[in-house]
Amino acid sequence: MVLRRRAGLTAALAALLGGAARAHSGAESWEQSIGDLVVFVTTLGLVVGLGWQGLAPLFRGQAGMSPGTRLLVAGLTLGLLGSLLVAVGKGTLWKVVSPPPPPPESFSSRSEHGGAVARAGSYYVELARSGDEFRVWLSDELRRPIEPAHFAGSVQAGGRTAPLEARAGHRAARLGVRPPARISVDLQVPGDRILLPWSMDAAGRLVPGER
Amino acid sequence: MDFSKVMAAAHPAVIHFPIALLFAAVAIDVYAWIRKDERAGWAGQVLLVLGTVGAMFSFVTGSMAEIWNARAYMPQAPMDQHEGLATLTSWMFIALVAFRSFLTPTKNRGTFQIYLLFAGLGLMALTATGYQGGELVYKYAAGVQGVKAPFSATAQDLAVLSQTNSPDELKYSEIMHHIFGVMVLALALWLTYQELDLPYVDRIRALGPVALMAGGVFLMIFSDFDSWPLSDIKPVTDREVLAHKVIATMMILVGMGGSFIRKSASAAGQVSRAQNHLIAVLALAGGGILFTHVHTTAPYGEAAMGVYFHHMTLGTLALLCGAVKMLDLSNPEGAKLWNRCWIVLLFLISAALLMYNEGVPWYFGGGQA
After folding, report:
1. Number of DSSP helices (H) and strands (E) in chain A, helices first
2. Residues within 8 A of A (CB atoms), B 303-342 only
């Protein structure tokens, strides 16, 4: 009995230490670490508890179990389901109680398709030119791409307008424009409209805003 | 006919069943506890099981509704919150069904009080989930036809809508399901061999637990495309990965337990009542995992929809497995029939796994078989 207790204590301590190290290694905050730790310890407790104490007597076919054993079985089963609850619910619980992640502080104007990048609210718009064709990529504030099926729009320059047509991952419009020129990109996203002015210098380079 | 739309439209109708059944179940259990009434306790338990199964089916119809509302550019944050509460509520009641199955209101008076306390908390979570679901309709016009939605998807929502699974991920998932289809088929054949009492049955019997443990270890290592290395946070925090790891743990433990039978001369080959009870509880938990499974990458894509359909089929079969074991417990005279039902269900599960693809299954009108 004493040996069992010591083994149990050692296992619990090892789980706690291992879990703490494991949980904090990649977590974003101490609260999340604690959540991860709970998941880790409960899951480990499930493995150790069920494997060590629960299943062995059960599978020996002791049909007439004493009330104490039945309670133990009930407790272990609860432990199993409790850990499932924690494992499955933790992510969602965390989502429910935590505020949405703040948008990145810095303006990430890095071009991903060789064009010029402008920010409009929580959207990033990248405009690139290849000959007569203007290409538009849209992304969110984390720079995750938005498929062309979810937005529409047009490019305007020199009093002419060309609708943006869907291509793989972006939209494109053909509009013959000689540099320097002012270009306007008009995008319709669900519930919103983005109107961005661009300048094309004499060398044909695109720059966000009016110059 | 697009079954996903039918299921999405059914969500507001289906959710009333678990709400009514679970409130009634707890009310009847309170009565059974106060009056020490075994019959009322039986009714409470049956209603609790039916309500929880209803909650699982409501969950999967809700997942379909979520996909179609997200595609109609409804904001995803309130839907995510509703889904989070629904997951929590479902698992509270799955745990309560398991706990309650070991109790009677007359013999376990003290423990029954604890159950009633948690059942009260479960009802509070259910109320909050229902209230929030109502808000999705009244405030965000979820699923309301012919009106302009008052709120629209954000940039982040559109980015999530744009996500797709890579062909490698889809292929990996399909292969994993097919491997498990073969394993379940082997398990079903193994049980059939014993049922028919063919030659060398004793030796064959020893293979089952070993195969189950091997399957658990395999799943623990290869469960998900991106679940390794362990130095990454995803294996411990991603719900999908965790669910697979829990299933792997269950398989290893049940396999270990099966081996104990072999070592115990007094009970070789005997399946105890407690084991049946445990398997029923595990089948319920397995069904719960399948029904409340959330596709975390590309959650509104076609693959997600297909996964929900396939998992609903597998979850239903898992619940039926649990029901068979419970019937075996309550009516041991029909053990032979229940054993055969159990084998048939395993064959059906293996067929469902072998036909698994990352699209809508053919029997729900999908293009691929």
Report:
1. 4, 11
2. none
Higher pLDDT, A12 or A92: A12
Residues of A in contact with B77 (CB under 8 A): 100
Residue B109 to residue B36: CA distance in whole angstroms? 9
Tens of pLDDT, residue by residue over B58-91, are 999 999 999 999 999 999 999 988 998 898 899 8
Report the alpha-carbon distance of residue B151 to residue B56 in Å, rounded: 29
Identify the residue among B66, B96, B154 best suited for mutation to test binding to A, counting A beta carbons within 10 A and taking the highest: B154
Size of interface A-B (CB pairs under 8 A): 196
**Rounded CA gap, A83 and B288, in Å?**
13
Mutate which: B90, B156, B213, vs A, most A CBs within 10 A:
B156
Cβ–Cβ gap A81/B92 under 8 Å:
no
Q: At what angle do helices B155-162 and B76-100 cross, to 10 degrees?
A: 60
Contacts of B153 (CB under 8 A, 6+ apart): A150, A190, A191, B70, B73, B74, B75, B76, B161
pLDDT at B264 over 80: no
Sheet holding A160-163, edge to edge: A160-163, A152-157, A181-189, A192-200, A206-208
Q: Over 80: is that where the pLDDT of A134 sits?
A: yes
Cα separations in angstroms, B118 against B123, B278, B287:
9, 21, 21
- B253 → closest Cβ in A51, A61, A96: A51
> Looking at the partner chain, which of A58, A96, A138 has a beta carbon nearest the beta carbon of B81?
A96
Q: How buried is residue A24: exposed, middle or buried, by Cβ count under 10 Å (0-12/13-18/19+)?
A: middle
Rounded to whole angstroms, the Cα distance separating B212 from B364 reads 31
Structure tokens at B273: 């009542």
CB-CB under 8 Å, B95 with A142: no
CA B274/CA B268 separation, integer angstroms: 15
* Chain B residues touching residue A78 (CB < 8 angstroms): 95, 98-99
- Secondary structure element (H or E) that encloses residue A145, with its range: strand A145-146
Residues whose CB falls within 8 Å of the CB of residue A206, separated by 6 or more in sequence, listed in order: A115, A116, A127, A128, A129, A183, A198, A199, A200
- The closest CB to that of B102, out of A47, A56, A73, belongs to A73
Q: Is B92 within 8 Å of B125 (Cβ atoms)? A: yes
- Give the residue on B whose Cα is nearest the Cα of A53: B257
Give the gyration radius of chain A's Cα atoms: 30
Residues with Cβ within 8 Å of B368's Cβ and at least 6 positions away in sequence, in order, are B357, B359, B360, B362
Q: Is ipTM beyond 0.95?
A: no
Mean pLDDT for the stretch of residues A171-196: 91
**Is the separation of the CB atoms in A137 and A170 below 8 Å?**
yes
Q: Where does the pLDDT of residue A65 fall: very low under 50, low under 70, confident under 90, or very high at 90 and above?
A: low
